[in-house]
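Revision sheet: structure tokens.
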Amino acid sequence: MDKIPGQTGYLVLNEEGAVLSSSGDLENDEKSAVVIMGLINLTSHIDKAAFEEGFKKLSINYDKHCYIICLSNRKVHIVKKTLDFTNGIP
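Predicted:
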């Protein structure tokens, strides 16, 4: 997986939530995988159209980092990224 600026880790999960590949802060992080799959399942119950039509990106933002979640090719791609606001760009 190509590294994006500020990336500190990534997870790739299958449809059932099993870790297929990982690196960095998220290496073999099955706890985060379970939490994120639960969030995705909750989202599908709240907005069924999001999964029928497909969402492009789901972001979870904290003060200093965020998780970016995308569904592609029947896999869940998760990137953990630091947020650096010192230069005005997240």
